[in-house]
Amino acid sequence: MTSRLLLEYDGSAFAGWASQPGQRTVQAEVERALRVVLRRDAVPVTVAGRTDTGVHALGQVASYAGPPAPVSGLNALLPDDVAALSCVAAADGFDARRDATSRAYCYRVLARRGRAGLDRGRALWWPHRVDFDALSECARALVGTHDFTAFTPTDTDHVRFSRDVYTAEWRRSAIDGVRERLEFWIEADAFMRQMNRVVVGTMLEVGGGRRTLEDFVALLAGRPRAEAGPTAPACGLYLVGVGYGGERVLT
Amino acid sequence: MTSRLLLEYDGSAFAGWASQPGQRTVQAEVERALRVVLRRDAVPVTVAGRTDTGVHALGQVASYAGPPAPVSGLNALLPDDVAALSCVAAADGFDARRDATSRAYCYRVLARRGRAGLDRGRALWWPHRVDFDALSECARALVGTHDFTAFTPTDTDHVRFSRDVYTAEWRRSAIDGVRERLEFWIEADAFMRQMNRVVVGTMLEVGGGRRTLEDFVALLAGRPRAEAGPTAPACGLYLVGVGYGGERVLT
Q: Whole-prediction pTM value?
């Protein structure tokens, strides 16, 4: 029997998803809670997106061999900064990582003069010049199949550097009614390590007039990492959701 | 010379806005930072909305006699959970409280089975039944001039219990792309202590089928506090912004 778990977490105090000796990780917390609830010695979980240190998740998906665990029981055992949203039976052999057909991420930017009073550690504070139209043009250029070699560390385990980007757009959201926030939304078949953060860091160079759109587009043809911009901080990045069977998260 | 200060704060760790001996308050932090930046012995500030313990602000407005302070200097002196967004010269004699013609608030509800992993202390977790249409009907009934006696504690300093509600609506927002959140947005000339929280607590009774819309509407005619519902937790409430000169915050 296979189960599918939907998780939300605040990445601030975690050394990312993947278990590492001596580090506080989301995987270790989730597996510990599952062991207690299911009364087993080990419940190894497979995850759709191995988020890095400090990256948040609104809709992470994990799978494990075993019956579904009650959400309330899991949440009572999980620490405050991780919550189970649902846990259901999945098709036998369901694998959250292998079966995922897309992942969607959001990167939040507070583009304003004053730092965050509320969203500390939840968004990048960007008190610099930023041209929303230039950002939007970069996003449009991202859609399609490109070689993202320039957007992941040189020291890499990845063997394939091409990714299919289904959706990419910058949104100005006024969710607060008054204060604006910039959000970059992207959905692709898969992402390489730090890829979203380097993409955002490089787009912000274009938005600030320090790099041209043409230069950004050229990077998408497999240029070396050194030619792209800086890695934007992890705190602004959210794994929004994971698509299965070709169903998209962002519509 | 009078200045006008726009503030954002996380109310979680504050005993509200107003200074109180031995308590950590937003007012005390702001006045302390202003004293240092302006090199004065005292800089008393007047605020548009005296938020209660635990209530957040996205756009609080305060005024003081003195020149504008540099935002970066203020933010360097303010604690992490308060930020100055702007500080500008105002018309002489401007009073953030007296001159305010409206205040807008938002109340956030996570209506779902699993508790918050990310928005801990930033929204009410409501794992109970809730009928969005019933909530919306309550909101519509709020618009106009009503006697809100039922929605503020009996032990009160208020002498006038009538308030003009300009806007009131529930929104289902899918800001996360996947996860839904319910938000109650309201703008009125002014609010009494705890008024928004009792309004929300009572609407959630209607949304859960434990109170009728007719009953809710009857409360708006000056019924006693005991007939209204519970006070919803402060953590879900945000002061969104303050209107001056008749200009509305919510449009």
A: 0.93
